[in-house]
Structure formats: C-alpha cells, structure tokens
Design brief:
single chain; mainly beta; seven-stranded mixed β-sheet; four-stranded antiparallel β-sheet
C-alpha cells in the first residue's frame, strides 16, 4: 500500500529550527514531484515547497523563501524540509504530498493542492513566541 509518513514535528521557540522528514513507500519514488503543504488553525491548506524528480530544482512560497530548504534522497525514498528562523506564523500542521507531473509546467502545478495524488497524515509544528 502506497503511503507517506511524516516525522520530526514538535514545539520550537521563535527563531529556532526543525527538520521534517517524509518517507514514501513506492518503488518509483523518482517519478514523483514531492512537496510540503501546511494548514494553520482556521485556514486553508497552503503550499510551502516543492522539489522535482531528481532534486535539481525546487520552488517555495514567498512566506518561507530563504528560511526553508526542501531536499530529497531518492535512494531512501525520503523528502525533507529544513525550517530555520521559525516564526509563530509558521505554526501549522505540515503535510507531505506526492504527484506525478511531467514537463516544465510542474513548477506552477506543484503549488496546487488539487494536483496531488498522495498525502501524508500531517504532523504538527508549533512555534512559540
């Protein structure tokens, strides 16, 4: 059964760092665009970051650019997001997502939650002020 499992969330002070990990149980990991989304209390799900099939290109929401770094390890079926300089407004449940997309349009399509086939269960991140 294909599934994504996130880990690494928790409570951190403002200005601190966390690294989230996500394992994707598929035999064709390198055919998927991998992304992170988040959902804050009372808000909709929003795009955080995405990375292409071999990890050579990534894109970010403006709100996290320069603070978050997405990466992947295709040998381990893992995707990560390193979150630095965390702010209270980063508090949310973070979701790992996977989708098959092809061509240059992936950069635009990867920002849309409805493009994704597989989702993790979500992991909470709380940033205390």
């Amino acid at each position: 059964q294909v599934q994504l499992v996130e880990s690494g969330g928790g409570l951190v002070q403002s200005g601190g760092s966390l690294r989230l990990s996500c394992e994707f149980s598929t035999r064709t990991f390198n055919t998927y665009i991998m992304s992170w989304f988040r959902q804050a209390p009372g808000k909709g799900r929003e795009f955080v970051a995405a990375i292409n099939w071999l990890g050579g290109t990534s894109n970010y929401a403006d709100s996290v650019k320069g603070r978050f770094t997405i990466s992947r390890d295709n040998a381990k079926n893992m995707v990560y997001v390193q979150m630095n300089s965390l702010k209270p407004e980063d508090t949310a449940v973070y979701y790992c997502a996977a989708a098959r997309m092809y061509g240059a349009s992936w950069s635009t399509r990867s920002r849309r939650a409805d493009e994704y086939t597989y989702w993790g269960q979500g992991i909470p991140v709380t940033v205390a002020s």
